[in-house]
């Protein structure tokens, strides 16, 4: 019985991480929409980092503008895959499962925007390097993907 209980709880901390990312993403986007007009900016560190209200109908760097059905379809597939893989990853490596949790939370955050309006609310504006404006979900996906890549590279190196 103990083994069954443990098995059924595997992955829940990482689903919790995904939920945290999702809630943080939704809350920050709601604040931006409520507080700023599109294009309006708040310089937190002038010339370096601003909060700028922006909408993006495409993917990262504005690619594939207007491909909403494609993004929704792909996101459903990614989310389904992550929901299936996360408990297995949790049994192998907390690091790997954390990466999946970050990606899952970010994917769900951007999915809600795309499903509701066809656009994603972006607001994190790193002006010092002229980087595209992004959001919490994008950050979580990027950090999660980076951690996952690093994890698999280290694991591969250790294996041989």
From TrEMBL:
GO terms for cellular component: plasma membrane. The keyword Protease applies. InterPro entries: Peptidase_A8 (IPR001872). Keywords: Aspartyl protease, Cell membrane, Hydrolase, Lipoprotein, Membrane, Protease, Transmembrane, Transmembrane helix. It holds the Pfam family Peptidase_A8. It is a multi-pass membrane protein. The active site is at 122, 138. It is found in: Cell membrane. It catalyses: Release of signal peptides from bacterial membrane prolipoproteins. Hydrolyzes -Xaa-Yaa-Zaa-|-(S,diacylglyceryl)Cys-, in which Xaa is hydrophobic (preferably Leu), and Yaa (Ala or Ser) and Zaa (Gly or Ala) have small, neutral side chains. Its main location: membrane. Its EC number is 3.4.23.36. Pathway: Protein modification; lipoprotein biosynthesis (signal peptide cleavage). The chain crosses the membrane at residues 70-87, 99-117, 129-154. One of its GO terms (biological process) is proteolysis. GO terms for molecular function: aspartic-type endopeptidase activity. This protein specifically catalyzes the removal of signal peptides from prolipoproteins. Belongs to the peptidase A8 family. HAMAP family: LspA. This is Lipoprotein signal peptidase. It comes from Hydrogenibacillus schlegelii (Bacillus schlegelii).
């Amino acid at each position: 019985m103990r083994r069954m209980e443990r098995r059924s709880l595997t992955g829940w901390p990482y689903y919790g991480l995904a939920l945290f990312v999702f809630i943080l993403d939704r809350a920050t986007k709601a604040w931006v929409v409520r507080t700023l007009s599109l294009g309006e900016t708040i310089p937190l560190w002038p010339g370096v980092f601003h909060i700028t209200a922006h909408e993006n109908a495409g993917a990262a760097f504005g690619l594939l503008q207007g491909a909403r059905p494609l993004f929704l379809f792909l996101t459903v597939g990614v989310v389904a895959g992550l929901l299936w893989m996360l408990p297995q990853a949790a049994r192998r490596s907390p690091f790997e499962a954390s990466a999946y949790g970050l990606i899952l939370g970010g994917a769900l955050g951007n999915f809600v925007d795309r499903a509701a309006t066809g656009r994603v609310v972006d607001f994190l504006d790193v002006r010092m390097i002229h980087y595209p404006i992004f959001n919490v979900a994008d950050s979580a996906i990027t950090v999660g993907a980076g951690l996952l890549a690093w994890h698999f590279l280290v694991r591969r190196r250790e294996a041989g």
